[in-house]
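Help wanted!
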Amino acid sequence: METRALPQTAAARSFSANSLADRGEAGGKFGQPEIPSIRTGLNSQYNTKSMSRRVYLDNNATTPVLPEVFEAMRPYFAEHFGNASSIHHHGQEARAAVERARESLATLLGCQPSEIVFTSGGTEADNLAIFGTTLPGDHIITSTVEHHAVLNACKHLAKQECEVTYVPVDSCGLVDPADVKRALRPNTKLISIMMANNETGVLQSVELLGTIAAEADVYFHTDAVQGAAKVPIDVARIGCDLLTISGHKMHAPQGIGALYVRKGTQLNPVQYGGSHERSRRAGTENVPGIVAFGKAAEMARSGLQRNDDRTLSDKNISALRDRLERELLTIEGTTLNGADVPRVPNTTNICFEGIEGEALVIALDLQGLAVSTGAACSSGAIEPSHVLTAMGLSRDQAKSSIRFSLGKQNAGDDIDFALSVIPATVARLRSLSPVWTAVAVTSNQAAHK
Amino acid sequence: MHSATIAVAMSGGVDSSAVAAMLRAEGHNLIGLTMQLWNQRRLAGHAGMPESVQGRCCSIDDVYDARRVAETLGIPYYVVNHEERFERDVVRPFVEEYLAGRTPIPCSLCNNHLKFDQLLVVARQIGADQIATGHYAQVLFDEQVGRWLLKRPTDKSKDQTYFLFGLTQEQLSRTLFPLGGMTKPEVRELARKHRLVIAEKPDSQEICFVPGGDYKRFIDAYLAEQGENAPEISRDTVGGEMVTTDGKVIGEHAGVHNFTVGQRKGLGVATGSPLYVIQIKNDTRQVIVGKDEDLFSRTLTARRVNLISTEALRQPMRVAVKIRHKHQPAPATIQSTGPEEVQVTFDEPQRAITPGQGAVFYDEDIVVGGGWIEDRTA
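Answered by r_m:
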């Protein structure tokens, strides 16, 4: 049965949905389907160039739902549609599925199922962890490179009579645990520092931070949205009280996330309603999303164990990332952001001197390569990355930096494609850049001295 | 089918949306671009600015509209962030000009430094060699002199050439003004025909980053926000005396930025006959007031002059000169008096020649060039 060929039409935009539906009708098996690359015929709606392919290297933004994951969740829309709180058969079906998924996530994180609280995503989980554990007068320690879900939650609390310390990072993007220790105060209630950075992939020393928090008897929350399914996570080893993960960063759909809450943690709800999620998060459970999340966690776990070519943390994906990185760094005037420190295996963030990252992202997109820079503001315009400027990059350097992030669906020819378009595009942008011309003249003069 | 790719500067308004629709219908390859220039929320709550700002430019609604239009037309669309350049090259000079007693035109600065500079660079970088905008103006190439010309549009009531006098030959050679031969009603009809969601959207009139058109409040809010960051344009130094043309001090004022040459209302002094602002003295911070007839003068000096239809002014030239957007061009003679400096001598005295505004020279419908009014001379 053909699983790779995809219809080259705009209708194939959601590749997994279409290809699965097709195969479903044909009565196909879903046990071991091959993973199709994302090469949809998106361009048919564009009049610019007829694009031969699209390659997606922005998996830290979101990932495609894996066919197995989609198949697992599909019956929970129309067939097993029950409300997990209902008494009857339909409700019980949904409840059982939710609890199986909870067990799957608990196994992935090394915790008890009762310690998992499902949320609408990473942002809600971060907000619940921060707002749920702090009161006016409390002190919070976080870092300058956190995701906005943590940073802006802390900013809001700073206006509500909480005190917030933002510990800096070094030029590699690492928080010094000694800084965190020094920042402790008698009223410190919470340390919230991420596991893996979304822009650079840099991994913090969360186990050291966990020890510091335990010694000081303060709560430790870590946003592990970008770490989950990429590196093994064991909440006991980390020593965290709260940990955030998100479905759509690990091949489950958007709109589902979870917060690990260690037993005994005093967590006040943020939203009020029914007694869902043991009264920690009111609101009817997103059953299809939860089922998908459970399946994605199961696949991530078995992948992490097998270390095979289907996981994010495997040799294959890091080999692909390393090749992309190595080749890109041979381009003149490039530097790696977050070099020489532990990183998740799928991410590389590279500064292309003398280039507006925004223009490079657009130019690459017009050729079919999806990458990203900085963080998009509400209009969709790009602002210089607070993560990179916190690492000591200038605003210009931050604006010249591009993030490439791989997913399970990427294969070697995706990297070939990226490497076939990036160098020429960088050269074209530089030939039209007043900044780069100035840089080139300066370095030329330096060379002649 | 045309093969060259054109970038369309899309604001989310009727004009630029119609441009995209027209060019798309003609079969061009298009990329829609919107410039994010100013965060309307930025000054919210500062020094009397409303908490919620209903500004026009770069609002989320406008970006949403532009995106919808691009989607309807099936063209790729991107928002590019030029907030830093806009503040440096448009907003700050706007504030500084007012505090120096002049009356700036930010739209011309934006055209010179953003739309036809930064945006054109981005357009070329992403593979578009030309840029199209919704300005009412025309560009043509004069083969005899080998120069690109800027010409007034068919719809004279929408003429925007006054704001485009700074365009260089390079910029003009890469610019398309597809609305130059159309009237506004035709443009709206075209938008309706293409079923664009913005077809009935009202025209924007005010300065895009100044909500409600209250520029004084904007300047106060900007200065309050900048605080220590703007000692050179501190508001503490902008107050001064109000003096009559014959040297009599008749009061004090809180800042030269509250006045424009020709202004009658809001002078804060009561006399028998109507008083007008005649001149604002940058060095002494004095606002000179007088009678209506004191406002008239025959000559002005324009600096930072950009010439379009000719490379140089080797001898005096007869033209019509426009000294503000709503001014009827008046017959005059222009003469070069230095590098990028031109003296304008009108046949008849003109009312309220205002430093900071543009003086744009026309030969019939062709823009000869233009510069920034430095001062009226006697």
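OP: Thanks! One thing I noticed: The longest strand of chain A covers residues 347-352.
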